[in-house]
Amino acid sequence: MAHEKRYAPPTAARYAASARAGTKTFWHQRITSVAGVPLTIAFIAIVIALLGRNHAATVQILGSPLIAVVMILFIATIAYHMWIGMQEIIIDYVHGPAAKYLALFGNMFFCAVTGLASIYAILKLSFGV
Q1: Long-range CB pairs of 35-42, under 8 A, 24+ apart, other chains included
Q2: How far apart are CA 108 and CA 111, in angstroms?
Q3: Per-residue pLDDT tens for 105-125?
Q4: 3-state helix, strand, coil in the chain (%, to 5)
Q5: Structure pTM?
Q6: For the purposes of burial, counting CB atoms within 10 Å of the CB of 15, is it exposed (0-12), middle (13-18) or buried (19 or more)?
Q7: Contact 89, 54 (CB under 8 A)
Q8: Residue 11: left if φ>0, alpha if ψ -120 to 50, beta else—which one?
Q9: Cα separation of 114 and 69, whole Å?
Q10: Quick one: which of 16, 72, 111, 127 could link to 83 by a disulfide (CB 3.0–4.6 Å)?
């Protein structure tokens, strides 16, 4: 029996995007996860340090510049990591162009609003406004 070459028609995925398009998000996801490890440890240490303190002490600690910078970096890194992760899940598992578009828009909106609101709260505590 001779080896037959089978014809495989081109799939829709073949022409969907550049073959390198996923590499950027892959590396961003990995970099934010590595950066998130020490920032999460610092965040947990800050939260443990705040346990049992009254409101004035909590505002004073969260208002210090070093703590504010660490908290803002934590929030920005985790929000971006969350956005990329959910985007990949939506692209892979949500079918239908309208549902996919709405889910991607909702993901972007949710991550942006929660990240910006959290950063605003830290900045407001830091500047005492």
Answers
A1: 35/77, 36/74, 36/77, 36/78, 36/81, 39/70, 39/73, 39/74, 39/77, 39/78, 40/74, 40/78, 42/70, 42/74
A2: 5
A3: 999 999 999 999 999 999 999
A4: 80, 0, 20
A5: 0.80
A6: exposed
A7: no
A8: beta
A9: 17
A10: 111
